Amino acid sequence: MTTEVEEESVLRPADKLMAASISRDVGFLLAKLHAAGSVLNNRALVEFGLKERSYSVLALANSELEPTQREMAEFLSLDPSQIVALIDELEKSGLVIRAPGKLDRRAKIVSATPKGSAVFRRAEAAARAAESAALAGLSDAEAGELKGLLRKALWSGRV
Amino acid sequence: MTTEVEEESVLRPADKLMAASISRDVGFLLAKLHAAGSVLNNRALVEFGLKERSYSVLALANSELEPTQREMAEFLSLDPSQIVALIDELEKSGLVIRAPGKLDRRAKIVSATPKGSAVFRRAEAAARAAESAALAGLSDAEAGELKGLLRKALWSGRV
DNA sequence: TATGGATCATTGAGAATGTCAATGATTTAT
DNA sequence: ATAAATCATTGACATTCTCAATGATCCATA
Lengths: 159, 159
Known about the structure:
The structure is a homodimer.
Chain A (H helix, E strand, L loop, with lengths): L25 H20 L6 H11 L6 H7 L4 H13 L3 E5 L7 E5 L1 H21 L5 H16 L4
Antiparallel strand pairs in A: 1-2
Helix pairs in contact in A: 1-5, 2-4, 2-5, 3-4
Chain A binds a DNA duplex (30 and 30 nucleotides) through helix 4.
C-alpha cells in the first residue's frame, strides 16, 4: 500500500510487467487490487478518524450479531491482540462499548454506541464511494460477479 | 494473515459474521482471501527459502522484461527501499543479479541467474498448487473468471 | 463439588513491514 | 554548463505482526 494511485488511467512504465507470469497469480492480483483500494479507502475514512481496520471493526460492532472480540479476530484475519488495540481506540472515541458475554463472561461483546452507528453510516457511504473508484474499470455487473466469486472462494461449502 | 487456515471446510463460530455488511465490502473480501492464500503460499515457498514477496520479485527477475528496481516497486506496490532489501537477499542467495540499465545507468536491471531460474520454476509449481488450494471453493472456470475480473479492475483501460 | 485443562481478553516483547527524508550518481532540460 | 529531476540506497521512525505469558472464567469429569 505504498505507491500512489494515479488519478488518470495513464499507461505507466511498470505496466510492461503485466506480461510477467506473476500477473497471472491470483495472490498477486488480490494484493495489488487490495493495495490500490486501501489507499482510496483510508483516504476516504480519514475524515471520520478511521482507517480500513478500525472501520471494519466498527462495521462488525454495528451489526446486530453481537460479535465477541475473538470472533472479530478470526473473521478479520487478525490476531486477538490487534483487536484489543483497535477496540481500545474506538472505545476511547466513544464509538463502541465492550460488554461481558451473556453466556460466557470471559468473552466481550463489542457493540456500536449511537454515536458509533452514526459515524459508521457516514463512513460506510464514503467507503462505498471509494470502492466504486477502486473498481472503476468494472461494470456494475462485473463488480457484482467479482464480489460473488470472492465470497464463494471464502465460504464455498459453508454458505 | 494471522489466524490459521482450517484444512477442513468446517462451519466456524466466526462465520456467523458473514451476515455483517462488511462482508459485502470488496476491500474486506480481497484482504481476507489474500490473507488465507498468503498462509498457504508462504507455507509452500518456505522450502525454497522464499516468501510471497521474494517470490514475486524473483518472478519478475525471471521474466525477459528486464525490469528495473523502480518498476518492480511500482508494479508490486512496494516502496523502492523494500525492493532493495528483497533483492539484497536474493542476490546473496545467488538467485538474481543486478546490472546497470543500458539506457540509464542510474537504474538497475534485475535478472535471475540460472540457479534463480531453476529455483523459480520449482517454486512456481508449488505456488500454483497453493493457489489451487486457496481457490478450492471455485471451479476452474470460476477461478479463471476471478482472475480476469481482477486483471480488468487493475488494468482496465490499459490492456 | 472440587479440580484440571481449556478458552477468553489483555499485556508486553521482539520481529517484520511500511513510510519517509536525505544522499551520491546519473540523466534530462534549459 | 548548469539546474532540476530521477535512480538506488541508507537510515530513522512508525505501524503492524507474531507469539508467549497472565488472570479470569468456563467446561469436563471424578
